[in-house]
Amino acid sequence: MHVLPDLHGQGIGTALFISAMAFMREAGYVSGMLGVIQANERARAFYERHGWTVRELRDNGVEGMPVAIYEIAL
């Protein structure tokens, strides 16, 4: 999920997040996982505000960038 910087703060990310969570629940998933580049503090704060917790930190993730792996119970 990505929201263009010019559109930050308008609730677009939250709307996408709510829709994605509903989709996963309706599909029968009991948990979700995602990866975020560790240096992306804005994205990490967003997910943490919405109940995601860090499960693992990987030094070599997306294109060699360190990644934080998040998990949430649905």
Write the layout of secondary structure elements.
Layout: H1 12-26, E1 31-37, H2 41-49, E2 53-58, E3 67-73
Antiparallel strand pairs: 1-3, 2-3
Strand order of the biggest β-sheet: 1-3-2
Straight-line N-to-C gap: 18 Å
Going by CATH, what is the homologous superfamily?
Gcn5-related N-acetyltransferase (GNAT)
H/E series, N to C?
HEHEE
**Average pLDDT value?**
95
Beta strand % = 25-35%
Walkthrough of the structure:
The protein has 74 residues and is of the alpha+beta class. The protein has one domain: 3-Layer(aba) Sandwich (Aminopeptidase), CATH 3.40.630.30. Helix content is 32%, strand content 27%. A three-stranded antiparallel beta sheet has the order 1-3-2, covered by helices on one side. The longest helix has 15 residues, at 12-26.
What is shown here, in short?
With 74 residues, the protein is of the alpha+beta class. The protein has helices at 12-26, 41-49; strands spanning 31-37, 53-58, 67-73.
What labels describe this entry?
74 residues; alpha+beta; Aminopeptidase; three-stranded antiparallel sheet; 3 strands; globular
